[in-house]
Amino acid sequence: MSTTEFEHRPANERGIADFGWLHSKHTFSFGHYRDLNQRGFSDLLVINDDTVHGGGGFPTHPHRDMEIFSYVLSGALAHKDSMGNGSVIVPGDVQMMSAGTGIRHSEYNHSDTADVHFLQIWIVPNQESVTPRYQQVNFSVAEKRGKLRTIISPEGENGSLSVYQDAKVLAGLFDGDESATYQPEGDRHVYIHVAQGEVTVNGNRMVEGDGARLRHAEVVELSQGKGAEVLLFDLRPNEYPSF
Q1: CA atoms within 13 A on the CB side of 148
Q2: Reduced to 3 states, what is the DSSP secondary structure of residue 187?
Q3: Where is the Quercetin 2,3-dioxygenase C-terminal cupin domain (predicted)?
Q4: Where residue 37 sits, what CATH number does that domain have?
Q5: Could you read off the pLDDT of 89-108 as tens digits, one per residue?
């Protein structure tokens, strides 16, 4: 009998920030949104669901000692940083910055008219003061269709991006009869985020923006997708991020 604990995080309970040019939904405490019960999960600290209107963006600002990645759902995001990187991030791309000893960067909507919709996600690193690094990889629809594709892992396995933490991130696309089963190795926690569409996770129906904590996860089953795009975080069995 499974001992997996399932805790639903409904999309409509997330924190909201609206600055005109930016509309952001915060899964966990961020900025002016504070909830003692939503301080992250294991080493996962931030999931911000951001929509930036045409011509808008985040001016140059600093970070240090944080693993930060962007996952674009629609539109295009223009990136520049103090390491000399400049790129445009589109759906299918995953961009990862290890801030380490310190970086400065900006993210702007690449379009003056169309919105860009993306997830900004932070993972607390297991090493401080590392040399900053930048990574960007495109994962095709075929790699994620009806299955879970590893996009981030500690050692950058199978073409994934590397992260300074004992954590993996997998992405999948599910429609109709497509399904996938994931079994973590050892005693692990899992966080599920439904980026788009709807999907059933371990018998629980989840819609766009929903999340779920699965403590001591033995198996994760995804099925009955309806235009679903899902991120699965394989994490250490801790409750909250530590600094």
Answers
A1: 21
A2: coil
A3: 151-235
A4: 2.60.120.10
A5: 999 999 999 999 999 989 98
